């Protein structure tokens, strides 16, 4: 590989056997061995694109490729076929065709691209048995798109992003780190113009470039307003440079006056100070003009903002008018009346439903009362057969007091109602009472004896 390039060689560049195959010419008929043909074509196609990318260019010609890929005093024999195949696939395009497909006005650029040639040469066929001239330049489409994107990014991230129009010289200086030469920048501008992102025109013999602004799908044509703003911006720049230059000159006069005064040359020092005053006065006048221009530019920027706001207002009014096209006050009142009528109907329905629920609650209360009475009637006979508890006081007994009178008096009175009790049941109950009474008396007698027993 030639030492004049900075391209990194492929891994198999030192493999003599493989490189001998790659440096050989292509067969006339691809169908003889499609695998070898395609393998060799893919190898050189990728290498051509890589060499251009490594060198930072977007154009290539056969003469440069022969020098770039020279190995052991030999150049590849099939590079012309590679360029023809790449052109057939749309990967490369002649510079003249690339420029003509964008805008014929670009053909008048004198930028050393050799674009001004007969039209029949511009659109001549590249395929078939035609030979490829050694110096004919081709544009690599993939790389020129990358350069265009990078150039647009550099502009929008620079200090000139607020300016829609730049001079060609300003753009060259701005893109020096992106485009290796002016030809590469021109190809990138051609691609941007094809994408409707820039517009190039001439003003007083000077090429100017207008960029699309953020939020715009495409760039607008250069208008008189754009030219006026561009002239004001140029005047601002020139006045700023002159004011800065006069400031430096005034400082120089002051330093000279100090030096002359130190040497005892008072009259010459006074002349330097007078000159300094004149320079400062001129600088003040220029600075006042500069401030006026800046004020005008600020007003223009504000007017553009106001214009954008007015356009937004207009769009909003149009949208609102369209959305209220079928809406009238009468229709709104009619809808409100219908809604009120439906609400009244709903209130009546709710009241009717609530009344029905209240009647159902009353019926439920009656049913619960009836259920309670049925429960009372269904109690067991052993409970319902008992007499009611007497409420009258017991009559005093005339019989002498017995030991169990205290217990008997605590019992309820004998009911007078007829009881279904047999004599045997009464006899048994009387015996139980007697036993209970005897046990109670015995407990009372033995209790004092327990208290008199001596302590153990």
Verbal overview:
With 456 residues, the protein is mainly α. The protein has helices at residues 16-23, 34-55, 62-68, 79-88, 95-100, 119-122, 141-156, 168-174, 182-194, 224-262, 266-323, 329-377, 381-384, 405-409, 423-452; strands spanning 59-61, 92-94, 137-140, 165-167, 198-203, 206-211. It has a domain at 224-346. It contains 15 helices and 6 strands. It has a 3-stranded antiparallel β-sheet with strand order 1-3-2. A 3-stranded antiparallel β-sheet has the order 4-6-5. The chain is elongated and about 155 Å long. 16% of the residues are buried. Residues 104-129, 396-402 and 442-456 have low confidence and may be disordered. Belongs to the SNF7 family.
Secondary-structure-derived class: mainly alpha
Q: What is the ordering of alpha helices and beta strands?
A: HHEHHEHHEHEHHEEHHHHHH
Coarse shape: elongated
Overall number of strands = 6
Question: Uncertain spans, ≥5 residues at pLDDT below 50?
Answer: 104-129, 396-402, 442-456
- State the helical fraction: 55-70%
Radius of gyration: 58 Å
Distance from N terminus to C terminus (CA atoms, Å) equals 133 Å
Question: How would a crystallographer describe the biggest sheet?
Answer: 3 strands, antiparallel
Number of helices: 15
Task: Give the rounded overall mean pLDDT.
Answer: 77
Output the strand order for the largest sheet.
1-3-2
Q: Which percent range describes the beta-strand content? A: 5-15%
